[in-house]
């Protein structure tokens, strides 16, 4: 199949009795910051721990990137 015929269809919601996987939303910002500001969680990451402003900047970048890529095929490494 040609790449010209392929489009990214977005990530949907996957739900089981014990788990819900869904795309991030701005409503998740407090939880994302709680995780990303914890030194134990970010010990082996190339970033963090984040302060609140850094979390907001990263979230803004993520949502802008996701909106930009919404109808495009993503590269294989994403």
Tell me about this structure:
The protein is mostly helical and 78 residues long. It has one domain (24-78). 38% of the residues lie in helices and 5% in strands. Strands 1-2 form a two-stranded antiparallel ribbon. A hairpin with a 4-residue loop joins strand 1 and strand 2. The chain is globular and about 35 Å long. The protein starts with 13 loop residues before the first strand and ends in a 9-residue tail after the last helix.
Short note summarizing the structure:
With 78 residues, the protein is mainly α. 38% of the residues lie in helices and 5% in strands.
Subunit arrangement of the protein: single chain
Number of strands: 2
Helix percentage range: 25-40%
Q: Radius of gyration over alpha carbons? A: 15 Å
User: SS-based structural class?
Assistant: mainly alpha
Tally of helical runs? 3
Taken in chain order, the helices and strands follow as EEHHH
* DSSP strand content: 5-15%
Gap from first CA to last CA: 20 Å
Uncertain residue ranges: none
Q: Which strands sit side by side, in order, in the main sheet? A: 1-2
Integer count of domains: 1
Q: Report the biggest beta sheet as strand number plus sense, adding barrel if it closes.
A: 2 strands, antiparallel
Q: Shape, please?
A: globular
**Mean of residue pLDDT values:** 82
């Amino acid at each position: 199949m040609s790449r010209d015929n392929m489009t990214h269809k977005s990530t949907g919601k996957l739900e089981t009795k014990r788990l819900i996987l869904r795309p991030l939303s701005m409503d998740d910002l407090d939880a994302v910051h709680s995780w990303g500001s914890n030194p134990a969680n970010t010990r082996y990451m190339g970033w963090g721990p984040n302060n609140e402003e850094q979390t907001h900047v990263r979230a803004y970048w993520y949502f802008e990137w996701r909106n930009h890529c919404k109808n495009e095929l993503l590269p294989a490494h994403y």
